[in-house]
Design goal:
single chain, 252 residues, mainly alpha, two-stranded parallel ribbon, 58% helix, globular
Length: 252
């Protein structure tokens, strides 16, 4: 068995790269040349993490590398390619230009943009989002629903993990998954997909419960991450209506 000699994933280095992106995105704060250099620097950090560091597992490395690459594409799009006036907050009652606002308001604007990859409430919000919660939804009713959703997905993810651990096609180091019988390969794919979907739903449910519960957000700002699987009766509809749309802005 090959030994992975790469360094452990450096959380501080990754966090620093995100701070650089946020600073580079603040409207009117840095000249374009410095923004460009900042993005190059973040790109170097991203490559450093992806190619020289490890989470300790192949699946973890794949997930982390995919997330970092997607975030880098988003940073390039927001900082270098998209004019600030095209990133309008549809609920913003301030009619002044974003570059004319106070530094604190610009920072808050960037944080909302940065933590909202689907563009909920922004001018590039996807047109095929799952149904929203009503603005009249009670804060605590919403929090309870998100906690319930978290628990259900935790159970399903645990079942999927047990199925993976019990799958001889995935656990036999002497054979590749492609060499296993069809039913074991099908189970492996289903378990992997269920774990991924449940993990993402759990993260969103937890964040939604925290932010709405603390009064920092409202229920209608948290539509479900995935649509109905019944709408996924074609490849196009799978990606357009069922799958999460957190990459919609950078894939237009």
């Amino acid at each position: 068995m090959d030994t992975d000699t790469r360094r452990p994933f450096n959380v501080l280095l990754y966090g620093f790269s995100q701070i650089v992106v946020i600073i580079a995105t603040i409207p009117g704060f840095l000249p374009k040349s410095i923004q460009f250099l900042a993005i190059l620097f973040v790109g170097w950090i991203s490559c450093e993490i992806i190619f020289t560091q490890t989470t300790g597992s192949k699946s973890g490395n794949l997930a982390l590398g995919s997330a970092i690459l997607a975030q880098f594409h988003r940073a390039v799009d927001l900082v270098l390619l998209t004019p600030f006036e095209d990133l309008k907050d549809l609920g913003d009652k301030d009619t002044s230009k974003i570059t004319e606002r106070s530094f604190g308001k610009r920072v808050l604007w960037v944080l909302k943009l940065y933590t909202n990859p689907r563009g909920i409430g922004l001018s590039y919000e996807p047109s095929h989002l799952p149904p929203r919660f009503s603005p009249s939804t009670s804060r605590w009713k919403f929090v309870v629903s998100r906690i319930s959703r978290f628990i259900i997905c935790l159970f399903l993810a645990s079942v999927a993990e047990v199925a993976t651990a019990s799958n001889p096609g995935a656990t036999d180091p002497r054979k590749l998954m492609s060499e296993a019988p069809f039913h074991w390969r099908a189970l492996g794919v289903a378990s992997f997909g269920l774990t991924a979907v449940c993990s993402m739903i759990m993260i969103q449910a937890a964040l939604a419960a925290i932010f709405v519960g603390c009064g920092l957000s409202s229920p209608e700002s948290w539509p479900l991450l995935f649509g109905s699987f019944l709408d996924a009766w074609s490849i196009r509809r799978f990606w357009r209506r069922f799958w999460h749309q957190m990459l919609r802005k950078v894939s237009l």
